[in-house]
Amino acid sequence: QLPTGLYKKVLVILHDSVLPFMNEPTLMMDFLTVAYGIGGAISLLALNGLFILIHQHNLEYPDFYKKLYSLLDPSIYHVKYRARFFHLTDLFLSSSHLPAYLVAAFIKRLSRLALTAPPESLLMIIPFICNLFRRHPACKVLVHRPGGPADMSEDPYIMEEEEPSESRALESSLWEIQSLQNHYHPDVAKAAAVLNQSLSEMEDDISGLLELSGYELFDKEVKKKATDVPLEFERVRGLFGKKNDIFAEHFSLD
Q1: Which residues cross the membrane (predicted)?
Q2: How far is residue 238 CA from its own chain's centroid?
């Protein structure tokens, strides 16, 4: 049993400062699997070490994707370790051998959570979802299904279902991304509109978007050169600008 703060400090450095120097890194299997099951930020940080054990030391983790799926909650777009988590999630979902229902479940859950995400997270997650469509064309039915649900109450997708195979994601449609096409931030609306067209075969590079911050977005907007915006106006006819108000009858601006 470790204090939460110490747990996080250990897991942050474990994958590059501890595991490479161990004669038997597999001895850390139990520690990492227990940490992965704790939840929250500790589970996110345990992913780095688990990734090394799975890919380099043949660790078999039953229900790994089920647990990864359960980590997707509204806080995932706000946590300090967001970039690390999505970098690893991108790697875990890169295999073309994953079943379509599993990838569709991740796409739907990420899209549903995106409805309350900040713009800097949306500019990262939309290309992330587009890359998943490129790797798994069977999931494109989410975009091209005619007569999709008109509102959330008709969506067959079950957000509360912990098992991806039971979430009915493949029966749904991606109305969430269509909603983001009306987002108040023009860059988000433009990014979401990409799904209205045929996706290119080449994947988007999201590495530069993983650590995008709200400050950077604001700074980018501030530095934009202002252009003259034509405005329509009604010439003032009365004291308070209304054409036929009572003040226009008794007062003049001359």
Answers
A1: 31-54, 85-107
A2: 52
- Sketch the domain layout of the chain as residue ranges: 97-148+168-253
Give the tens place of pLDDT for each residue, 7-39: 888 888 888 888 888 888 888 888 888 888 887
Model confidence at 52, pLDDT cuts 50, 70, 90, reads confident
With residue 193 as reference, give the H or E element that holds it.
Answer: none
Evaluate if pTM is beyond 0.90. Answer: no
Structure tokens at 112: 């549903």
String of DSSP letters for 114-165: HTT--HHHHHHHHHHHHHHHHH-GGGGHHHH-TT--SSGGG----TT-SSGG
DSSP assignment of 2-37, as one string?
A: --HHHHHHHHHHIIIIIGGG-S-GGGGHHHHHHHHT
